[in-house]
Every structure is written in C-alpha cells, then in structure tokens.
Amino acid sequence: MEPWNHNDTYGLVRNAFGQKQERLVRSSTQSVLDRQAFARYHFREVLRLSNTFERQHLKSCSMIHTYDGGPKREAFENYIIKIGAHATAAVQSIHAIPDILAHAIYFACGLNLGENKIEEHKIALPAVIGALKKDSTFKRICPLLINAQSGDLWNHMAAISNLSKHRNVIRAPLNEDLTGKRKKFRELQFLSFERNEKYYPSIPFQELLEPEYTRLSLLTITLGHELHTCLQAFVLGISPRRAQ
Q: Within 13 Å and on the Cβ side, how many CA atoms surround 237?
C-alpha cells in the first residue's frame, strides 16, 4: 500500500477551508503519528527490558529464585515496575489513536464549519461518524472510520486501557509455563479481569498489541487515501457541498 502523502492532503484542506483549518488537521494528524511512535517505543522497551532481565537473571534458573531476596529480588521488582509502566503506556497510546484520528478527519472535512458542527468537548469517534453520515461529500469515509474500533481484540485492549485509567491497573507480569504445553516458556501476559460483567481472560502482551497496532496503522493509511480522494473532488467542484 502506498503511504499517505500528508502534505498533499494538507494542501487540499488549505484550498478548501483555509490555513486555520489546515493547522488543525496538521496538529491532529501529527498526534496520530506521535501516538504510533509512542506505542512502538513502549512496546520495544518492554521486549528489551524482558530480554535483558532474562539474560542477566534467569539464564539458568526459574523465576521462583527471584523470590529469595537479595539483589536478584530487587532487580526483579525494578523490572516489573518498568515493564508495567511501558505496557500500560503502549496500550493507552494505541487506544487513543481512533479518537485522535476522528479529530483529524473532522477538521479535514470541515465539519466544524457547518451545520454538522460538534461541541468541542464532544468530538470523539461516535460523534464524528454521526456527522459524516449527514455529509454528502465525505460520508463515504464513514465505513472506514467505523472500523477503527472493530478489530477482533479491540474490546479487550480498550477494557484494559479504560480499567487501568479509571479503576485499577491491569498488569502484564512475566509468566512461566511449567506444563510444557505452551510454545513459549516465558512470556508477558496481561492478567485476567472482569469489566461490566464481562470476563476477559489473560492474554499475551504481544498477541494483543501487535495485531491492533498493525490494523490501525493500515487503516490510517487507507483513511488518508479516501480522505484525499474526497477532498480532490470537493476542491475541483465535483462534490455538491461547498466550504462555509
């Protein structure tokens, strides 16, 4: 898939709605890129810290030996704090992407300039989708934006993010498989939990984050291409709607 050429899209926004609107789009789009970069950084740090800890402290022993106290125990506790911070931050960065992406689309389509304007504190994915459905020029973007929160693992990740933000942190400790049935002997797993009377089983850190990050990254590019096409039609006068 060809990358999304942001600068070309910004130029179309500027032609359609002016420089102030372009600045709004730039800010939100850059924030999507920032959140992607933050998620990558935190994800890689979790893996790096885990590999380093295993190499230095678990090369020839089990995790049970870290419970004996002394330097190994202290190193283990420091490691758990660091990976917990990075794991939670990675989840929350990915979880933030759909709503920031919705802001980018909202401003790029000039929805804040017309009758479909949304109160600033209410701008979020569902509200932007509702506004797009009423817009003759940009409503074709709507199905793509709906997909931002429709991944197979999205609800699980969103539950971890929201619960960790509002009630209690869902940790992702290092887990050893003593049964020999699992492919990996050691892996980080988010603990099981319940939210809104629904049970969420434990799930490996990588198996949760990698698919959702990849899915959202590809969706962002597809959305960018569709947005660009709609803006081209609008600027060229093919679309019936005009800037306010």
A: 0
